[in-house]
Specification:
The chain is α+β, with helices and mostly antiparallel strands. It folds into 2 domains: 3-59, Arc Repressor Mutant, subunit A; 71-145, Glutaredoxin. The protein is 40% helix and 12% strand. It has helices spanning 3-9, 20-31, 36-46, 50-59, 79-83, 86-97, 141-145, and strands at 71-76, 110-115, 127-129, 132-134. The protein has a 4-stranded mixed β-sheet, with helices on one face. Strand 3 (127-129) and strand 4 form a beta hairpin. The longest helix has 12 residues, at 20-31. It is elongated and about 50 Å long.
């Protein structure tokens, strides 16, 4: 992405430091995450340091700096899910995918997230895969949800 392309993406913004958060939001909507190149170009355009940009962006949980996976898995670890085996389900995903929560697989296929609550406590343990909720999940169902994907060699 060039500075010229960035300017085209942000028509309507004045190019002042006050635009930082809306600009970061727009970048993430357009590209799925905020890349190092984007931060560099935003820094030049808004005339603020990259450190300032990272300081603001890391304050807010909404911003990500890594490309998200094609399929997002959210494992609930709220009280009901934790008591009914949510942590074990998360561990199976960790081993099968070879990643930790907050990471995506090297092929970009899956992203693993731990969440405090999905709002389906009566169905605990619960997870969502691409926003489809799966209740009363067992560790045996994980393989089916991953299309039979075998455990990572790194586990």
């Amino acid at each position: 992405m060039s500075l010229a392309a960035l300017r085209a993406d942000f028509e309507g913004f004045e190019g002042t430091p006050a635009d930082l958060i809306p600009v970061l939001q727009r970048i993430q909507v357009l590209h799925g995450f905020i890349s190092k190149d984007s931060v560099h170009l935003i820094s030049r355009w808004l005339k603020i340091s990259e450190n300032e940009i990272y300081g603001v962006a890391t304050f807010f949980a909404q911003f990500r700096f890594k490309r998200p996976g094609d399929h997002v898995i959210k494992v609930c670890l709220g009280t009901a899910c934790h008591v009914r085996g949510g942590e074990q389900i998360l561990d199976v995903f960790r081993r099968r995918l070879g990643i930790q929560p907050g990471e995506a697989t090297p092929d970009g296929m899956y992203q693993l997230e731990r969440v405090a609550c999905l709002g389906c406590c009566a169905l605990a343990p619960v997870l969502s895969l691409d926003d489809k909720v799966h209740g009363q999940t067992s560790v045996l169902q994980v393989r089916d949800l991953l299309g039979g994907r075998e455990p990572s060699e790194d586990s």
